[in-house]
Write a structure and sequence with these properties.
With 278 residues, the chain is an alpha/beta fold. The protein has helices spanning 21-28, 32-49, 73-91, 117-124, 133-136, 152-164, 187-192, 202-206, 215-223, 226-234, 238-250, 260-273, and strands at 4-11, 60-63, 98-100, 103-105, 128-130, 140-148, 170-178. It has 2 domains: 4-192, Rossmann fold; 199-277, no CATH class. Helices cover 45% and strands 14% of the residues. The radius of gyration is 19 Å and the shape is globular.
Length: 278
C-alpha cells in the first residue's frame, strides 16, 4: 500500500507561502472563519486536481489529524472540507463522506513546531494511535492535516496503518506542504505564531464571533506566564472560562506540572466567581 499525497500549497520559499500567514496563524488559534476558507479551498483543489480526473466510486472516510479530547485546528478545517466535498459528491450521484477518528495518547507537552525532523520523530514516536479497523473495511481513507513539514505525523499514521493491517487505498491530504529541504522545519512555528506574539493577541480571535477551541490555544493559555494569565482571564466571558477549564481536564492538562500554577488558579477562579457553573 503506497499512499497518495496531495497538498494544495507547496512551500518552496520561506518568504512566499502561497497563502496569508496572518490567516494561517489565526486558524491555528481557533479562527473558524479561516478554517472554513481553508477547508473549502482544499476541497476545491482536491476535486479539481484529483477527483475530476479519477473515477472514485468507493465509500470515502475522512479522518482528521489524531487527537485525544480537544480537537486540533485541522478538525475545524476538516468540517468545511467535508461540507464542500459532500456537495460535489451528491451532485455527481456518489456516496457522501463518512468520518472516523484516530484516537491519540499524547506523551509530550513540547512545542512541536520548533523541532527538527529527527527531534519530531523521536518525540511523537512515544505516542500511540488507535482507529476502528472494522469500520474502515473496503473504504477509501482520506487522512487530513493542515501542513506537512517533515512527514513525522504521516510516518506515525502509516505505522498505525501497518500495525492494523489496513489494505485500504489511502490519500494523505494537506492544506500546505514544505517541499524545500533547505528551509528549517521551525518555519512551522514562524507560521503558527505569525499573528500571535502574546496571550493578549488571542483576544481578537476569541472575540471575532467565529472562534472555536482547539488543543493549541488551550495549551498556549495554560503555559503562559502567571501574571499575564491572570489578566487574560479577567478579560474573558464566563462561558469561555468554563469551557477552558473542562477542556483542560479532558486532555489531562491538570496533571502536567508546567501547567499546574495556571490550572490551579483557573479552578479557584471558577469556584469563587462562577461557582454555580461547576
Amino acid at each position: 500500500m503506497i499512499p497518495y499525497t496531495y497538498s494544495l500549497h507547496k512551500i518552496s520559499d520561506a518568504a512566499d507561502f502561497g497563502f496569508d500567514a496572518h490567516d494561517y496563524s489565526r486558524f491555528k488559534f481557533g479562527d473558524d472563519a479561516v478554517a472554513k476558507s481553508f477547508g473549502k479551498a482544499l476541497a476545491e483543489g482536491f476535486i479539481r486536481d484529483v477527483l475530476e480526473v479519477n473515477d472514485l466510486n468507493e465509500q470515502i472516510v475522512v479522518i482528521s489529524s489524531p487527537y485525544c479530547f480537544i480537537p486540533t485546528a485541522t478538525y475545524a478545517m476538516k468540517t468545511f472540507f467535508v461540507y464542500h466535498l459532500n456537495h460535489w459528491l451528491a451532485e455527481h450521484n456518489k456516496l457522501v463522506v463518512q468520518e472516523a477518528k484516530v484516537h491519540r495518547t499524547i506523551t509530550y507537552k513540547e512545542d512541536y513546531g520548533e523541532l527538527s525532523a529527527d527531534e519530531r520523530l523521536k518525540l511523537i514516536g512515544n505516542d500511540s494511535f488507535h482507529i476502528d479497523k472494522d469500520f474502515l473495511k473496503d473504504k477509501v481513507l482520506f487522512f487530513l492535516d493542515d501542513i506537512k513539514i517533515t512527514g513525522s505525523h504521516e510516518k506515525m499514521i502509516l505505522k498505525m496503518v501497518k500495525e492494523y493491517g489496513l489494505k485500504n487505498d489511502i490519500f494523505m491530504l494537506y492544506f500546505a506542504e514544505l517541499v524545500n529541504n533547505d528551509i528549517h522545519p521551525k518555519i512551522e512555528n514562524h507560521l503558527n505564531y505569525f499573528k500571535v506574539k502574546s496571550i493578549f493577541d488571542l483576544n481578537e480571535i476569541i472575540k471575532s464571533g467565529s472562534f472555536t477551541f482547539n488543543t493549541r490555544i488551550v495549551k498556549y493559555i495554560l503555559n503562559c506566564d502567571f501574571n499575564s494569565f491572570n489578566i487574560f482571564l479577567e478579560q474573558q466571558t464566563e462561558q469561555f472560562i468554563y469551557s477552558l477549564y473542562h477542556l483542560a481536564i479532558g486532555n489531562s492538562y491538570h496533571d502536567i506540572e508546567s501547567y499546574e500554577q495556571n490550572f490551579t488558579h483557573l479552578k479557584k477562579y471558577l469556584h469563587t466567581k462562577y461557582y454555580n457553573l461547576i
